[in-house]
Amino acid sequence: MRVSKLFTKTSKTAPADEVAKNAQLLIRAGYVFKVMAGVYAYTPLGLKVLENIKQIVREEMNAVDGQELIMTSLQRKDTWEVTGRWSNEAVDVWFKTKLQDDTELGLAWSHEEAVMEMMKQFVKSYKDLPVSVYQFQTKLRNELRSKSGIMRGREFVMKDMYSLHASQEDMDQYYDKVIAAYERVYNRLGIGADTYITFASGGAFTKFSHEFQTVCGAGEDTLYINDDKTIAVNEEVLDDATQEIGIDKSTLTPVVSAETGNIFKFGTEKSNAMGVYYTDSEGKQQPIYLASYGIGITRVMGVIVEKFADDRGIIWPESVAPYKVYLVNIGDGASVHSDELYKELTDLGIEVLYDDRDVRPGQKFADSELIGIPYRVTVSDRMIEIGKYEFVERKSGQETLLTREQLLAKLV
Description:
The chain is an alpha+beta fold. The protein has helices at about 20-30, 45-65, 75-80, 110-120, 170-190, 240-245, 270-275, 295-310, 335-345, 360-370, 380-385, 405-410; strands spanning about 30-35, 40, 65-70, 75, 95-100, 105, 130-140, 155-165, 195-200, 210-215, 220-225, 230-235, 255-265, 275-280, 285, 290-295, 325-330, 350-355, 375-380, 390-395, 400.
């Protein structure tokens, strides 16, 4: 992609009412457009990052036999009434609407009940279990607080997966497999070393849950961890949780963190309430065990920005960056060489954002740092004379001069 073709432009300022660093940088760099508090549109640059995050998650969910689908945003009232989660007292983040005939509907904030209702049609026998389905969907939640940029939105992209099982044992085994898959996801996203599986409140889901919390100064949670980092507890359940697992809370150290994932075991609660059963090998009706697993795709994007950005702009891990190389052309004589390198790298499958604009070199360099592409390659008249390219790593700032062969060896 040529920068001259992008409809977005970088900016030195963000909206005055935007206090979150992640949103300020994403807006200035042209990844998102702020519509209102907690609601953001994603430009082609932003969408590429989201799709890269989604693909990592997709691959790991497929690896544990998840099947991708897409559920509806519009939800029937009666689907949720049977489990008690339609009322605003039980779930205070519903957005609700009405059809023209006054039929009341909800705008999906989660999909446990909806998935169970669908599975009535497909799961009849123990031979149909286990089954796991997941989706990437825009969720709508009437959050009271939306001051953390894309880390807490009223409209956001989420991966939610639901697994159905014939027994507690099978659910527990699968639950552990998903925990391992989540750990692989966070490692691939570049935040695994600072992400902990955490004992937490289940909120509107269950009494207790497991959260995946990433240490992040801009987070809204306080996490208590032990010295060897094998135990992590959310402050909101600190007393109950430490009593449950038998540990002295004074041995735990607090850190600020952001929730990047959340998983729950519902057991047979939903099945019994909704009448969703299967026939076992002896011909008897049995309730289905349900577990739920979420990852906030847009929230993860915001956390990555918060954790790695510096005073010059965003720093994307290579695994999620919209492009691998930011190619800079300096000088009239370098244009042909830049065009040739752009084509060569693109033909090799390397994604390149090519700054071909007729602007000052300083502006190109500043924009490359703000946008946060992992590597910058500069082609200039001076470099052509010595047969070299300037190669800069965004994360470290290290500059090296490379021949064409050395450059390709670095990037391919």
